[in-house]
Amino acid sequence: MDERDELLPHTASIMTGANAVVLMLEFVDALTYYGISQGFKNFMQDRLGYSQVGASSTRSTWTAFCDVVPLLSAYVADEHLGRFRTVALSGIWYCGGILLLALAAHPFVLTHHVDAANIAFLVAIFVGIGVGNGGFDSNLIALGADQFATSDDAAQEAFFSYFYLSINVGSTFSYGYLAYLCVDGMGDVVPAAYGYFATFLFCAVALVFAIAVFISQSHRHRAPITAFVKTPPAQRAFTHTAAYFMSSAHGLTSICLGLGCFCSALVLNFAAVFVTDMATTWVLSCTAGGLICVGGGLWLCKATDATAVDAACAGLHPQAARDLVQVLQILPLGVFLIVWNAVYDQLDANFQSITQQCDLRWFPSAGRDAAQVPGAMLGVFDTLGVALWIPVLDRLVYPWLRRRCAVSSMDKVAAGLFLSSAAMLWVAFVERWRRAAAPIDLGDGGGPVLDAGSHQPMNAVSWTITIPGYLAIALCECLVYIPAYEIFYSQVPVHLKSSAQALNSFMSALGDTLASVVTLLFAAVITDDLNDGHLEYMFAALGGIAAVNAVGFVLVMRQPTSLLLGVAFVDYLTYASVNMGFKNFAQGRLGYSQAGASSLRSSWTAFCDVVPLAAAYVADEFVGRFRVLLFSGAWELGGIALLTVAVHPVVAQGTAHALFLVALFTGIAVGNGGFDANLLAFGADQCGGEPAGFFSHYYMSVNAASTLAHGYLAFVCVDGVAGLIPPTYGYVATYALCGAAMLAVVILFRARAARLWPQLHRSHSAPLVAAAGASIGIGVSLWLSVAWFTKAALPMTTVSDAFHVLRILPFASFLVTWQAVYDQMDANFQSITQQCDVRWRREAGRDAPQVPGAMLGAVDTIGVILWVPLLDHCIFPWLDRRLPGGLRATHKMAAGLFLSSATMLWVGGVEVYRRAAGPLDLGDGLGPVLDAGTHQPLNNVSWLVCVPGYLLMALCESLVNVTAYDLFYSHVPAHLKSSAQALNSFMLAMGDILASLCTLLFAPVITDDLNDGHLEYLFFALAVAAAINAAGFCYVMHTMAF
User: Fold this and answer.
1) pLDDT digits (tens, 9 = 90+) for 174-219
2) Its membrane topology, per UniProt (predicted)?
3) What's the total number of domains in the chain?
4) If DSSP codes are grouped into helix, strand and coil, which group holds residue 988?
5) Bridge partners of 921?
6) How many CB atoms lie within 10 A of CB 528?
């Protein structure tokens, strides 16, 4: 029995007794904290004279300080005073701090002693409120959860939801009413000048009342039902654990070094608030950000290293070893919460700034003097959203999901982290939309209408456009914070539960610090009047960082195959980034012709698909798949580094050309080939006897990577990033990003190896994969002939390794023509797109921003992401129930091959239609409008005509490639599975070579300016070849009864 179970006098109820007092106190704490937070920026800017950046940075630092103090209060509670007394003393201190804040906000003090008011303000928020609130954060939630028996998991989980609900009910009151009171006062009772004073005084009175009620429950004999169960402190509970980590004998000094980096980052960021020199502030904050990254890396590497954990536990008492493992298990989760908290911090730091420069008038028809919605009040949509989402999730969504699959706390956190990335990107879009709308000018000579709080011009777009951002963040909070409360409470020993909650708050502090660092990094584009800056750059950057954080969380915290899917994602991100920029770089920087660039690209992709044969040989016969994958990642990383040098603008063209070819063929192709041969088989090995789901997830991962490459990096390659990366450095930035991602996954892959994957035994059977014939045609013919020799003699029950391999050769032969068709998507689809009208807004004329031609590849990858689940969960089950004998893999393959022929006909027709439209001439005497990438004329037809071709090709891929993964894995012996996947890649290489040959055969009609040629001839020829290939496939597979 848990030691606190003996103290429970009754069955705890969530909404009555001691728990009700805890929830009430948390409600008042939230009301107080957010009552201060919602008016923080406006008070500093309007009353104390801070700048936009200074106010945002100070606020982030204050919230960071509030989240660091819980470490000290956890030490006091777990070792000395216990949780109840620590909360009571913190509350009394809290009251003193908020009374001092109210004094600093009094109009008399602000008018006559503004410097003293500023000092009192800083002392109140840091020394008073920061310390008092910190005592609550680490102990109050643990005190409430202590009131339940350890076996009552359902009640504890419900308590955490109610606890977070109490926070949001309190903050709703702050945002919904106190936001008004701060700015407008309350009629004749509270003049507007006394708004902040009245708000802070009200919070102080409420807190004094709540603390009095809390302390009154101190003695059980006074109120046996409402008295608290007080878990006694444990001697040296906190310090003993810390000392153990610090002891070099246990090999956990990296954990202490990481903590030292975190603490140093907080100190540096705190110092940056009080430094007046902007350059020094920038250096301090950037150093703090770097230390956070180093500390997070140390924690992730050490806490996930099973070998290090086992060594640390050696010789310990079993209970001590269990305690140590429990503490180590929550550290990686804490690291991933840092970025999440940096995202969440934007709710008060910069969401509010956007809102305050929208049209906040309740009734715009009332003109300049219309009543306004206080910008801070929009925070109420976050808190109301939480109050709405919690019951929806707990009563509807989670039960529905649990009936279909297991839903863990980690699953909820992962969903919240991914959603936070989408929320940041949405807010970036909203800011662009807001700024595009001009400031409100009523034409009365009074200039733009100003916000009553910040006195900045409001733009002609309603404040309601910011509501979805608040609601999205509210959903993220419910998915991240509530499960985090549960994990940090239930996964640690009872004597360290306050310390674990303090660690949660500490991660929040680091997130606030990171938010402050990000704000300072983007200070140049965050102006007091947002119309003069580009605040959306910061939100877009946070969206990308949050996406990487979410992916990292899944890779580290979930099942082994998640990390492998992440490796596949990064590998294909690199491959697709090189592939989509290949032709433009070769033509624009190296001087290749259209046909020459296409042929070189096809040769490179063919080489990438041949290398897996060698990689499979090494893996299956010598060192195993894991070691080949690790080496391939390191080798590909070197290739990316060399490619980054090659595309740098200062490198001479001749040198760049040589480095470019070496990096592509010797570096990236070899590394990518090692992945292609082994990663799919290695992942399927982890799935036991049911790898089919992994194949679908694998293909979705590579297409998600391709979506990112074509959807965003295609822009970066050509246009750079406005204000950050010049266009000439676009390729450098793209490949540097890929290199950083590859470095991260190689480190994670190596760090997780010992825990996740035992080393697979090597086979000493020679791979039975025949070499290709003297030519593709002869080779395919010879392999197809196998069908007639094996159709009767080799039934599926044959156990010979050779016969298993021979049976898949005819199937593999038909992939050659398919790959030649698929290769056109990057080789010549892109060329057609780049000579359509790729302008985003035609009315903007010649200088309108353009859609990079390579970006259309994102339509293909998004199509795959949509098609795969639609096929797996809807279409395939429906067909399987209706077809005699069920739906077979060869049926899917045949459908994909026939559809590929139709796709080629469609694309050929699009090219005829495009060329007939004629070049786009605006009549301004400057000639046709040119594509920004190839500098060829755009024709007068929208790029949207190319979209159906990409979507059709995506459907073909989903039917052919995923099926091929399955067949090449399931139809060969276990010790030849890497070789079989290499055979798949080898046939794709033959297809790439065939595509290159086709391009060269039709070179006379493939001109640099497609308007002078007939590219459609190539597509029509491929359509005929694809149709013959599909018919042959059906005949041979039927003959073989495959």
Assistant:
1) 877 887 788 778 888 888 889 899 999 999 999 999 998 888 876 5
2) Multi-pass membrane protein
3) 3
4) helix
5) 928
6) 15
